[in-house]
Amino acid sequence: MANNYPFIPYKRAYITGEEMLSKSQAYYQWMDERRTVRDFSSEPVPREVIENIIMTASTAPSGAHKQPWTFCVISSAELKTQIRAAAEKEERISYGGRMSDEWLEDLAPIGTDWQKPFIEIAPWIIVVFKRSYELVNGKKRKNYYVSESVGLAAGFLLAAIHHAGLVALTHTPSPMNFLCKILNRPANEKPILLIPVGYPAEDATVPDLARKTKDKVMVFYE
Ligand SMILES: Cc1cc2nc3c(=O)[nH]c(=O)nc-3n(C[C@H](O)[C@H](O)[C@H](O)COP(=O)(O)O)c2cc1C
Description:
Blueprint: H1 17-31, H2 47-57, E1 69-74, H3 77-98, H4 101-107, H5 118-121, E2 124-131, E3 133-136, E4 139-142, H6 146-163, E5 167-168, H7 178-182, E6 189-198, H8 214-217
Antiparallel strand pairs: 1-2, 2-6, 3-4, 5-6
Helix pairs in contact: 2-6
Bound molecules: flavin mononucleotide (FMN).
Residues 35-36, 38, 110, 112, 169-172, 206, 209 line the site of flavin mononucleotide.
């Protein structure tokens, strides 16, 4: 791949078959312990930890390396109160009839409703914004595969949160445009996820869900 742009050698430690197998198994088992938690403790988490988690998310691949994301991080009690009120306003309408019966039926095992106390309880709220374009010298410059790229970054974010010993809730109050206003975001940004992060409450519970088995999620063509 010769061109006029600089390239650097890519070097990583070589992992052998046996070690590869045990590492991949251990990582799978450890990732399988990740759960979405809805009962948070208000115990503080250092800002630097959150910064590291977000920088990990920002290592995700992205279309044409545009990194089309902004992570807004909220600890201000005043803003959390505003966000909770706005989210609950939308969610009350959603659960009260805007969602289809089928959707409500699918949500029943998860046990969610319109109330979102975790927005005020969790020490940090990360709002993930996607950036559909950039303004360069006043001109719009396109970003590519924005949703795919930001989805990947969000996945890295959740893995980093799990790695730090913390828990998260991937929350999508719908519609969530109120976040642009409350957080005063520019016109090229749209919120896609609202993620409270912190320690779980001591008495936290999670739905007893089973994950799909091997034969349901993969098809090999060898
Ligand atoms: C895009 C997306 C949106 C979600 N929105 C919500 C939400 O608004 N509220 C909520 O309580 N959980 C939400 N979840 C969490 C899912 O309910 C949860 O991931 C699923 O039940 C599986 O549980 P687990 O994450 O513990 O494996 C969302 C997850 C994803 C990926």
